[in-house]
Amino acid sequence: MESRKLLLISLSLVFLLAFSQAAMALPISSGGETKALSASDKLLGVERIDFIHYAKGKDNAAGKGAKAAPCYKLMGYSWKTRPINYSINTSNPQGLSQSFIVSAISTSAETWDASTSAELFNNSYSIDPSATYGVRDGKNSIAFGPYSNNGVIAIASIWFSNKTKQIVEFDQLYNTYFQWGDATANPALMDLQNIATHELGHAVGLNDIYTQQCSAVTMYGYSSEGEISKRTLEQADITGLRSMYGT
Ligand SMILES: [Zn+2]
Q: How far does residue 126's CA lie from ligand 1's centre (Å)?
């Protein structure tokens, strides 16, 4: 009797643990792409982190773990090999033109470049219809596609070495649940340049900021349609960037 009771208790504990871990797990990518790491990645201790950019009001984590200023946060990993090449897959179900997409994204990359002496992003990106989000393939891929959670605007995945503290790859997915475009022309749209500037901030090593008093910075973790304030960097974004790559 006693041992049966004990068994029941430990069984329910196991279920409780399993359930709470499932509930805590972040939704990771749409592609089911999680592959075994290569031998060289194992040697480098390569790990992946996903930054999920939520629409305002779709998540109640705002301010959670918030600290006082500064309004920037470093991942603790950065690029040592530069400039960073990136590949844009412009295919999308919304009729966005190739020229609009590459202009919005390269302008976003140049916004970070212009605020530090380092040449961060290569001025000549690739337009690559095979660039795929979420695959550790040595390609820094930027792509559009549907994502399971409609409150998620975009995801930036970063692969980094916990041995060398270097970022070794990034990928980005822009959720086509949202209607993308130029919000200065139509504020009902999710502004591509606005969100791309935020996501490229992750690509260079900046973390999200959720403190309400920091809501003006580019690395603030929430956005909504019509927002364009993240297109330009605030002083905190620049301070964070320069601490990694110089003035
Ligand atoms: Zn973010």
A: 23
